[in-house]
Amino acid sequence: MSATTDHDERRCARHPEREGRYYCSKYGRYLCDECATCADPKLYCKFRTQCIIWELERYGGSGSVAR
Ligand SMILES: [Zn+2]
């Protein structure tokens, strides 16, 4: 256990205690592994071509994709 309490600004928008590993350009916020899904898949995102979250959804088809 590390005793360091570094306040990283890259925190998940939903889980402040988690590291925001993925940056959502559309909403300008960071998301953790669990939240790394597009919040509004139906809403066109001009950042989609460079969005790591969108890429994860496209290629992360490991059975958890709804449709
Ligand atoms: Zn989260």
List segments where confidence is low: pLDDT < 50 over at least 5 consecutive residues: none
The largest sheet, given as strand count, sense and whether it forms a barrel, is: 2 strands, antiparallel
Percent range of helical residues: 10-25%
* Number of contiguous helices: 1
Order of helices and strands: EEH
Structural class: little secondary structure
Query: Which small compounds were modeled alongside the protein?
Result: zinc ion
Q: What percent strand?
A: 5-15%
Give the number of DSSP strands.
2
What coarse outline follows from CA principal-axis ratios? globular
The mean pLDDT is 81
Radius of gyration: 13 Å
Identify the strand order in the major beta sheet: 1-2
Give the distance, in angstroms, between the N- and C-terminal Cα atoms. Answer: 40 Å
Organism: Desulfoluna butyratoxydans
Protein name: B box-type domain-containing protein
